[in-house]
Amino acid sequence: MTSISRRVFLKVGGGVAASVAIGVPELTQAATSLPVVEGRVNLPYQMKAITNAQKLQVNTPFSFFYPDAASPCALIKMGAPVPGGVGPERDIVAYSMLCTHMGCPVAYDAGQKLFKCPCHFSIFDPENIGQMVSGQATENLPSIVLEYNPKDDSVRAVAVEGLIYGRQSNLL
Ligand code: FES
Q1: Where residue 99 falls among pLDDT bands split at 50, 70, 90?
Q2: Going by CA atoms, what residue is nearest to atom 3 of ligand 1?
Q3: What are the sequence ranges of the domains in the chain?
Q4: Cα of 163 to ligand 1 centre, how many Å?
Q5: What average pLDDT does this structure show over 36-54?
Q6: Which pTM value belongs to this model?
Q7: 140 and 160 Cβ atoms separated by less than 8 Å
Q8: CATH second-level architecture of 48-161?
Q9: Does the annotation count 53 as an active-site position?
């Protein structure tokens, strides 16, 4: 059995304590100089032109894929300004079409302006950043971050907010 004298224990313990005491101010300084948002990572998304704003019909989904061919999305011109909306009327938004519960493709109900999942009936609100309204899902629909270029009327996807269903990272 290994034993350690009280004197050795205090010496080692004191050394560790001294190291910690010395290290703390440096860590604090580094932490304040590099602001970090917990749980968020900046991924190198590609910019992708989706369509022109003038081609969009109000309340009618426009399908595309982003950030890759395995990720179906829908762009919608809601007809009135909404949170996160882009374009001349600040009313164009886009979302992943994969339900955050178990990945079924959601369908757009134009009458209610809601995305509905046919598998277990989760409902998401595109006028409110894809908020989960009811059902089995516990996460909002991932929203596609858009940019609008007034010079050529183009709408571009530039990132994704939220984790696309079934992925450990939005970029494979
Ligand atoms: S997969 Fe959409 S609610 Fe279950």
Answers
A1: very high
A2: 120
A3: 1-34, 48-161
A4: 15
A5: 85
A6: 0.78
A7: no
A8: 3-layer Sandwich (2.102)
A9: no
